[in-house]
From TrEMBL:
Keywords: Glycosyltransferase, Transferase. HAMAP family: Nucleos_phosphorylase_PpnP (MF_01537). PANTHER family: PYRIMIDINE/PURINE NUCLEOSIDE PHOSPHORYLASE, PYRIMIDINE_PURINE NUCLEOSIDE PHOSPHORYLASE. InterPro entries: Ppnp, RmlC-like_jellyroll, RmlC_Cupin_sf. It comes from Pseudobacteroides cellulosolvens ATCC 35603 = DSM 2933. This is Pyrimidine/purine nucleoside phosphorylase. GO terms for cellular component: cytosol.
Length: 105
């Protein structure tokens, strides 16, 4: 999906890692929530509450998923899933544009 329609956007940005990762929350009519954001180069670790699907819209990153010992390179146009209640690590080598979908199961 290239564009979102009939959504609400939270005005206040989500800012992490001293501003190196930022996003905006988009809420759909049915309550579905996504964030659209940018990551600057760096090493990051995130925790999840809900299951997440991270779609890379631009750039690339290396991902270390929970219970994995191998880093996975994820490029523009690709995505990866992270289970609920877990942590994952990212190595971002170039500016990365992303969309994160939160899946409540």
């Amino acid at each position: 999906m290239e564009t979102f329609t009939k959504v609400s956007v939270v005005k206040k940005a989500n800012v992490y890692f001293d501003g190196k990762v930022t996003s905006r929350t988009v809420i759909f009519e049915d309550g579905e929530k996504k964030t659209l954001g940018i990551m600057l180069p760096g090493d990051y670790e995130f925790g999840t509450a809900a299951k997440e699907i991270m779609e890379i819209l631009g750039g690339s990153m290396d991902v270390l998923l929970p219970e994995s010992s191998e880093w996975l390179t994820v490029n523009e146009g690709q995505s990866f899933e992270v289970p609920a209640n877990s942590k994952f690590k990212l190595k971002v080598k170039e500016l990365a544009d992303y969309c994160c979908s939160y899946i409540n199961e």
